[in-house]
Design a protein that fits this description.
Layout: H1 2-15, H2 18-27, H3 41-48, H4 50-68, H5 83-95, H6 108-118, H7 120-137, H8 140-162, H9 165-181, H10 183-191
């Protein structure tokens, strides 16, 4: 029973549609009807502005972290489910949120939050890599995919050092999510039509 409850909690945490709720509550706007139609931080920046975009991004990160740290709650302390599995479930919730008709984000921020909760040095590496890539390319989607590859490389090296196969498997899974969710972006990048940021 505890395992079922913690899995449900991880999914529901991931399903919290930060972009949708902030848009509707503070801006009287459904961001799914504007920009890319995505609920993530990037579209929130584009449609609602920097303040809202940053808030949505931070909240989406914290969803992954919160789900990963659920076993630290005394009620869930006896669960046998690995924290990274809970994190992955939260990412699925973020991509297919029950609170937003299963139309969610592209998994980047929430995936980062999972890593923040489980392997914070990797999270720091990815944040640095993201902004370096963004500075060079000016393309958020491309930078997101670049850091997912960096994460896989880091996890492979980490595996050979520590033998932590669970992190390696999870990062490969999250990278797969990210590339899958960016299919349309990849096409636009190839066509030279992908939007570029102007603030960096």
């Amino acid at each position: 029973m505890v395992n079922a409850i913690i899995i449900l909690c991880a999914y529901l945490i991931g399903s919290i549609p930060s972009g949708l709720w902030i848009g509707k509550i503070f801006y009287k706007m459904d961001i799914r009807e504007h920009g890319s139609g995505n609920l993530g931080g990037t579209n929130s920046f584009r449609v609602l502005g920097k303040k809202a975009g940053l808030t949505v991004t931070i909240l989406d990160i914290l969803k992954g972290t919160a789900a990963t740290l659920l076993p630290l709650i005394p009620f869930f302390s006896e669960t046998q489910i690995h924290p990274l599995i809970l994190g992955a479930i939260a990412v699925v919730g973020h991509m297919f949120p029950i609170f937003a008709s299963f139309r969610g984000g592209k998994a980047v921020a929430t995936s980062g939050g999972v890593l923040l909760g489980y392997a914070w040095p990797l999270f720091i590496v990815l944040i640095i890599g993201f902004f370096i890539s963004l500075k060079i390319t000016k393309i958020v989607s491309l930078s997101s995919m670049v850091v997912s590859v960096i994460g896989v490389i880091y996890s492979i090296i980490y595996f050979f050092i520590t033998g932590d196969y669970s992190l390696l498997v999870l990062v490969i899974l999250l990278a797969s999510f990210i590339f899958y969710r960016h299919r349309a972006n990849i096409k636009r990048i190839k066509d030279g039509t992908e939007p570029k940021v102007k603030w960096l």
